[in-house]
Structure formats: C-alpha cells, structure tokens
Amino acid sequence: MAYDIDMIKKVYSQITDRVDKAREVVGKPLTLSEKILYSHLWDAASNKAFKRGEDYVNFSPDRIACQDATAQMALLQFMQAGKKNVEVPTTVHCDHLIQAKQGAVKDLKRANETSNEVFDFLGSVSNKYGIGFWKPGAGIIHQVVLENYAFPGGMMIGTDSHTVNAGGLGMVAVGVGGADAVDVMAGMPWELKFPKLIGVKLTGELNGWTASKDVILKVAGILTVKGGTGAIVEYFGEGAKNLSCTGKGTICNMGAEVGATTSTFGYDDSMERFLRATNRDDVADAANGVREYLTGDDEVYANPEQYFDEVIEINLSELKPHLNGPFTPDLATPISEMNVKAKENDWPINVDWGLIGSCTNSSYEDLTRAASIAKQAVDKKIKPKSDLGINPGSEQIRFTAQRDGLLQIFEDLDATIFTNACGPCIGQWDRSDRKGEEKNTIVHSFNRNFSKRADGNPNTHAFVGSPEMVAAIAISGRLDFDPTRDKLMNEDGEEVMLEEPQGIELPTRGFAVEDAGYVEPRKDGSGVVINVAEDSERLQLLTPFEPWDGKNLMGAKLLIKADGKCTTDHISMAGPWLRYRGHLDNISNNCLIGAINAYNMKANFVKSQITGDYAGVPDTQREYKAKGIPTVVVGDHNYGEGSSREHAAMEPRHLGVFVVLVKSFARIHETNLKKQGMLGVTFDNESDYDLIKEDDTFNFIDLESFAPGKPITIEVVHADGSKDTIKANHTYNENQIEWYKEGSALNLIKKTNA
C-alpha cells in the first residue's frame, strides 16, 4: 500500500478532464510536462493558454519533501505561519548531517550524538504538524522519495535542488527554497514562471560500458550549466522506454546541473515494474487506468520540433561513456579522449578515491553494475589502486544489497561502506588521506563537482561518471584508464581486461528491509512542545525581516563584486557549516566567504568603505549593518547556481545586504532572494558590470515607482565623484513586489493569516 493513496487517486480522478480541457484551451496536442502543469493549476477553472517563459502561474503541488539541512529553516519559518498542520502531505528526511569518516555504524552513531538537538527538533516539529519523519540512516531523500512517494503525473516540490530526481517516475518535481515550501505547507499556491520545454529524443539502447548516467553527462555537455534555465527537459522515444526507472531518475536528478526547472519521462513499463517492486501495486493499477494522460500525446513525440522550444536527439546505441569535470559538471569528456585531454590540461592522472552513491546513483541497479566490476577485480586478483567508498541510497537498498551479497563484494576490495546518506557528495566527508590544499584527483558518481565541494580542497579535481566507470577507474587508479581497451596487471603479473558491467534492474528476490526508518506523526500534535534553547549554537527562532520603507535606496556601498562562477556553495558553504543551518546568525558567518573578489582575486577579503581596511566578507558586512549602511553585491552570469539552499539569500538579508545586481540569476536563487524581501536585479547592459569600482556608492533613484516590467535606474557614484547611470531589469510581478514591500513572503503570509 502506497503512502497517501487517496491523494494519488484524487489526482488521477481529475487528470482526464483537466488535460482534455487544457488541450482545448491550448489548441494543440500536449507534452507530458504541459499535462502535469495544466492539471495542477491552482485555479482549476482557468481558461488561459500560458506563455512559456513569460507568464507567472500559481500551481497546487501534491506533496513536499525536505532534507534535514534545509528543513530546519523551512520549519522555523512554518512555525510562524499560524497553522495547526501542514495542508499538503510533507516529509522530512535526515540525510545531510551525517559525516562520512569511518563507516556506517560509527558514522551514524557519531551523527546521532553530535546532531541530536537538530534531529530532535525536526522530529518534534514533524510530530506536531503532521509531517512524516525519516530518521538518520533511513536513506537519501530522493531515493527514499522515489521508492515511497513519487508517482506518475504528480507534482511535488522539495527543499533540495535534486528533488527533480522524481521525474524518473514521471513527476514534475521541482527544487525550491524553504519559503516556497512554507507557502504550500500553509495552504497557499506555489508560483512558477511557466517553463519553456526542451525535448530530448532518445533512440537505440544502451550497451557495453555506457550507462544512464552518460545520457545526462552528454546532455550537460550540450546545454551547459545554464542551458536549461527556465525550462523543463522532457525525455521521450524508444530509447527512453528502454531505460530502467532508476536510470531515468539518474538522468532527471542531474538535470539540475543544466539549470533546468525539472526533467521528466512519460509513464511506461519500467515505471510500472518499479512501482510494483516497491509494493505500490495500488499506484500502478491507478496509473494504468489513465495511462495515456501520463505521457505526451503521440503527435508531440512524432513531430517534436513543433511542440518543444528546443529538441536534442541522442542515439543510445552510439553513446560513449563519459567523465565530466573537473570543477564543473558540464565539461564532458568521452572516456576514450581522457588520456589526451588530461595531459593537455595538466589534470592529476593518479586517482585517490572512487566514490559510488549519492542521490544520483545509489539504486539497487547502480550497485549491481558497480559490483559486477568489483567482483571481476576480486576474481582476477586485481588490487585496487584507489580507495573506494559506497553510499547506499536507502536502508531498503542497503539491506537488500547486503542480503544479496553485493556489499560483501565491495568489502572484499577493502571498500568503506558509508551510511545511507549524502556524505561526500555534499562535503560531509572527513577525508583523512589528504591534508592542506594538495592537487589531487577523485572520481565519483555524484552530480556536482564544484571546487571545494567534496572535501573543502580547491585543488581536488573531481570527475563525474557512472558507478561502474567509477569502480573501474578506482581499481585502475588512473584517470585516463579506458576499460574498453586498456589492460590491467594483476597480482600474478598477468595482463587482464575488465569485462562489460552487468546490472540487475530490480532484485529477483524482491526488496527487503527490517526497519525502513519511517516515523508516522501523531494524528493530533497539539500537545507536542518544541523547545529551542536560547543559547543553542545550532537552532535559533526567527525574527521577521523589516518591511521596505517605500523610499528610494540611497547611499548603498559595494560589499563585493564577485568574479566568475558564484554558486550557492560560494555564497553559503556546506560541509562543516551544515551544523548551523538552523541558526541564521551563526551560519551567516559563512556569507559569501567562497566568492572571489574581482579586485584582488581573493576569497573572503574585501575592502571596507568605512575604514579602508580589508577583512572577511561577514565581518565587513556586520560593520556596515551596525552603522545602518545598506550594501550591494555584484555578480556575474548564473549567479546562485547549484543547490536550492535559501540560506544563500537569507544570510545576506540578515546581515543587511539590500540588493544583488548580476548579469543573470540561477532560477531557484532568484526566487529565494525575492521570497526573503531582497532586490534581485540584472544589468540591462552586461558590460556595465565592468563599470563597477571597489569604492562605489549606489543610489536607486526611482525605486519608489517599483513596478512589474519597469527597469530600475541606478546612479553609480565613484570615489572621485564621477558618476555612471545604468539600468537594471527585474522579473518581479505584482505579488512578488508585495513580498518586497512587506519585507518577505512569509511576512505577507502571516499578515494574511492574522
């Protein structure tokens, strides 16, 4: 029996009429994405055909998922909303606050000791407000969602950018900031600009060393990290049907790395197999009853150029295995070309670690394909040259894999089996084999490989590949190893080759688990008391942000002009800072400490216009705040790329930054800034970025007439008294301007519920 089956059946009972009506309104056949979007309109009676990439639309998601790092701030905000229970099925998953170090048992025990205050808080809030709670060790949020909650044709949001993983089961699943989630928890609509549509036609069938991961590695190389911004990527074709459900999930998961709103696949036999294998026959039966409504119309897939804004075609039979990186997930290199490319770029050839797992690649099938390579190493007496670490995706995966002997195969190679959690993928890795900032290489099956992400070392060159390719490269110890043609020397001095990986889509004996780690909330949580100690270092109750005074913003100083890529990891680092995700003031001490100052090319070293001295960004900004001086952050393209963490918006807001002025924003971060009552604007002329000087003062001279579609005029006053007047554009609509006026979206919700 599935969770929330009545809700799922209600969605299916409405989908036929709503999709049929939408088809009439739009006047043409519909993609799967459009079917899900139009069937989840907040105003079900709407008769409007929305313009892609232009119209802001209110939606009604079916469910919400939160991971423990972002859930803290989301739930702290929800506690202020004045509600007795969440209005939409919601879950919290404890997967981020578990550091990988010694292995699953010891690491989980240590996490429960060091983060018990946070886990207790999340459990109590979940109990009080009717939220399903998944304990530490239960698994990685997105794998748990795929196994338990995702369903074809549904819409969900989650406080993690890789919520998009659920597209592998035919959902429109979108990563959002906590403030967006709070809106929906409180029974409010969720607003999204109606996405553009990118169609990816898959033909052929994967073979040999090529895996589902290679599909998205190839797509990332084509679209780049911002090529999918504002769009849903919809996969279709016979090749799509030939992929497993979890393979589809892998592809959708890493779609976040091309900036896509989400990615999805139409309902097919592989999804039905997965639903039934995970004890959800009731969902599969219900989905089969509306099967044609859970995929795109035939005419769309027959003539995709007429219905998508962009179409990409990939022949899976010809696709080659890839490694992407380092330092960016869109630098795609076929394995066969790595030997040349690595030498040209002076990438370290020796590989220190191979890491398999994360929300992207930790399914049963992933483990079997990697284990088939590991088993060959054992049988052929090949001693691995690199360390190997494994993160199973869920307790159900781990238990089943242990029962079937898969984990033992890895342990025979001296691999470390880490907790069913994110671990190194998000920087939760106590890496003892490296000290300082030594130049080195690791390979992993994760989704992101930004500088410092895995281990805090800016010189760790991280490359992304499939689990089986990671296993092969780790065994060889060389980045340029191509298992399709290269031989290895075994312990007997013999040259041997690794054979092609073999995987098992679903366990032949079925999944098994003793304790999945789920805690059902009380039916009546009114008596649950939530305690947050005033002297806590980990948790802090929130104080509402101040409303806008309605006046022009004058005399604002430049805090930092960020050079190049400035992701949410640069703005609000993870790793050891995760411990402060529930304490806004403490975590604000990492605000923009990873951003590179364009004037000296150093991180966390900016000039104070008060003293003329250079210091860290948070300290400098706290001094501005203490003196009541507003500040501006200037950035480059795709500012805020990466994780959905709203802390990257809340920290500058808390410290007194008023404006973020950039060439372009990543979607989630722009929304997060709006939600927190900040002014996020873009240069009308991108070259004006070059006009900004280190000692500049900014006057926003027509902010008093802030209105949708109306550019904002900024007077930039230089230290010598000269001035430049520039224009800045914005995407605020009427409702979002109300957020700005009230000081935040949450302030507006509280005012509405008062």
TrEMBL record:
Enzyme Commission number, as recorded: 4.2.1.3
Protein name: Aconitate hydratase A
Residue ranges of domain Aconitase/3-isopropylmalate dehydratase large subunit alpha/beta/alpha in the record: 35-477
Span of domain Aconitase A/isopropylmalate dehydratase small subunit swivel: 557-685
Protein family: Belongs to the aconitase/IPM isomerase family.
Listed NCBIfam families: aconitase_mito, PRK07229.1
Keyword Iron-sulfur on entry: yes
PANTHER family on file: ACONITATE HYDRATASE B, ACONITATE HYDRATASE, MITOCHONDRIAL
InterPro entries associated with the record: Acnase/IPM_dHydase_lsu_aba_1/3, Acoase/IPM_deHydtase_lsu_aba, Aconitase/3IPM_dehydase_swvl, Aconitase/IPM_isomerase, Aconitase_4Fe-4S_BS, Aconitase_4Fe-4S_dom, Aconitase_dom2, Aconitase_mito-like
Catalytic activity: citrate = D-threo-isocitrate
Enzyme class, broadest EC rank: lyase
Keyword DNA-binding: no
Pathway recorded for this protein: Carbohydrate metabolism; tricarboxylic acid cycle; isocitrate from oxaloacetate: step 2/2
Keywords carried by this UniProt record: Iron, Iron-sulfur, Lyase, Metal-binding, Transit peptide, Tricarboxylic acid cycle
Gene Ontology MF, one: aconitate hydratase activity
Gene3D superfamilies hit by this protein: Aconitase, Domain 2, Aconitase, domain 3, Aconitase, domain 4
Top-level taxonomic group: Bacteria
